[in-house]
Structure to design on (101 residues):
């Protein structure tokens, strides 16, 4: 969504003017920044509550830069990663993830 807003803002900027495009550009940048700061942790939590561990694992693996997450969210990320590793009986991965918290 952020990329679409940025592209729309750039296209609007070239066609009409940058002042009119500023709203779309600001919204696009805000969407991209919040994506990297918060990540899809809320979606992972919903999948875990529904009992869909495979979907939660897929979403956890989609986070490419966990060090960019905000500190409390990063701690939750590693805690969830440890919990999912415990669910699959991968104790070494669980221990490594919990040490990162």
């Amino acid at each position: 969504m952020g990329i679409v807003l940025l592209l729309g803002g750039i296209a609007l900027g070239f066609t009409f003017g940058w002042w009119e495009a500023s709203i779309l550009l600001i919204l696009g940048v805000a969407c991209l920044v919040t994506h990297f700061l918060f990540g899809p942790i809320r979606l992972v939590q919903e999948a875990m509550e529904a009992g869909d561990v495979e979907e939660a694992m897929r979403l956890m693996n989609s986070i490419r830069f966990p060090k960019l997450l905000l500190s409390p969210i990063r701690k939750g990320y590693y805690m969830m990663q440890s919990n999912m590793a415990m669910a699959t009986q991968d104790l070494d991965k669980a221990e490594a993830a919990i040490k990162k918290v």
Remarks:
- The chain has six helices and no strands.
- The chain has a mean pLDDT of 87.
- Helices lie at 2-15, 18-38, 41-50, 53-61, 71-87, 91-100.
